[in-house]
Amino acid sequence: MAQGKLRILLTGATGRVGTAFFAASTERYWFRLADRRIGTLPGFIGHEAVALDVADLAACRAACEGIDVVVHLAADPSPEADFYDSLLDNNIKGTYNIFRAATDAGCRRIIFASSVHVVLGYPDQPPIRPGSPVLPMNTYGVSKCFGEAVAAQFAHAEGLSSIAIRIGAYDPPWTEEEATSRNLSVYLSSRDMNQLLTRCIETPNIQFAVVHGISNNKIKRLDLSETQALLGYQPQDDGFAVFGVDGPG
Amino acid sequence: MAQGKLRILLTGATGRVGTAFFAASTERYWFRLADRRIGTLPGFIGHEAVALDVADLAACRAACEGIDVVVHLAADPSPEADFYDSLLDNNIKGTYNIFRAATDAGCRRIIFASSVHVVLGYPDQPPIRPGSPVLPMNTYGVSKCFGEAVAAQFAHAEGLSSIAIRIGAYDPPWTEEEATSRNLSVYLSSRDMNQLLTRCIETPNIQFAVVHGISNNKIKRLDLSETQALLGYQPQDDGFAVFGVDGPG
After folding, report:
1. Stretch B111-134: mean pLDDT
2. Contact A40/A23 with Cβ under 8 angstroms?
3. Cα angle A74, A77, A83; round to 5
4. What is the complex's ipTM, to 2 decimals?
5. pLDDT of residue A248
6. Using a CB-CB distance cutoff of 8 angstroms, which residues of chain B are in contact with residue A134?
7. Domain spans of chain A, in order of start
8. pLDDT recorded at residue A41
């Protein structure tokens, strides 16, 4: 295990967010990469990989041993996911297990991948604040509301530090038709997400926060002011520019 | 089945809240009383009783047939309840199942028994508003956050009407030592709860609401203004008077 570097457990390591974050941060942190099926990833030498089904609490406990910060990305990411077929195991039990295991193992912080889906029911404008009541429109969004509540409870009652990131549309392969104002207003580039994750891992003195994960889009459906003030997050990209869309006005 | 009367499915019918509400409303509604073990209750004649484990989706579907409004009280009410031992089945699956079943059966509205535990982490004052972010301090509270998110999602995405009541301390058997200002500030008498449930059942034109279930306590930890404005709820009791405590000031 590398000395001096923060030891990160990255669940969902082979997903799109995990792969890009690991690639960008291979030198910065020591990683335990975890996913249901895991092989070797580029830059893997010097890190660790474990097969992990987050629905298995005992396996989560083993994966959390010796870890400073957990970046918990493992989840079914589909807005159409079914409660009993998938969400109950992957998102509900999986999130509870990771928080339970990390807390008991003495980890300092968990970064929880929440989603814009927890507030999907709001109109496009005004921008949604992190303290607005949840308003999910599908069971996937409900599962992320559960995760935010777990993150709040462990932070306030069990002394863990936790940050929930409401992730917008991550590096989306949108067609011209899909690149609507509403969609672009939650665009998140991979390099902005990598920066945001680094800020979430390294910013000291946070007991609990809900932060917003979008780029510096010309129009923002999620308000970034509190996130930027808390973390010093400085997004570099604008979805409207990336997709060549002017936006209204 | 009685004609002209609203048809109510009352889950958790043999619990303290359910028993008192049924006794007070025997003539006002037609009831299908449901609980894991159910016998005959006083005033039962003319109503229906079914054994129901809310963790069983098929059983929930049968219980919801022909029902206008579901009053969903069934849950593990213990703040110390364990996730895997109890909450996952009784509160998580149970609530999802009732919302799924009631929606598919064409019920008009669900009244969901939420709890002050979803916002337990706030200081005593100022009074908590229904739109404040959740702040649970135990897994029981997390399970009720999940239920509120389910209630919001079904109301906004599936057209059901739903109202979540954050129930305070219901008719509590407190000793003198337990009757602290903080506790009394969430006191809820059974007759105030009965009135509140009736208002939740009968007030028209509500798609979704979170309301607060406490009495007219001299000091209120949960703000009642929005609840009273929405429902015309007029609580009669004051926990400080009931327990003979002056309260500060």
Report:
1. 97
2. no
3. 95
4. 0.95
5. 60
6. 134, 148-149, 152
7. 7-242
8. 66
Task: Enumerate the residues of chain B whose CB falls inside 8 A of the CB of residue A207.
Answer: none
**In 10 A of CB B173, how many CB atoms?**
5
Contact state of B149 with A142 under an 8 Å Cβ cutoff: yes
Give the distance from residue B235's alpha carbon to the nearest chain A alpha carbon, in angstroms: 26
Which of A139, A153, A207, A211 to mutate to probe the B interface, most B CBs <10 Å?
Answer: A153
Domain A7-242 top-level CATH class: alpha beta
- Name the band, by pLDDT with cuts 50, 70 and 90, for residue A45: confident
Q: What is the pTM of this model?
A: 0.96
Would you give the end-to-end CA distance of chain B in angstroms?
53
Q: Which residues of B touch A (CB under 8 A)?
A: 57, 83-84, 88, 92-93, 96, 100, 118, 121, 130-139, 141-142, 145-146, 148-150, 152-153, 156-157, 210
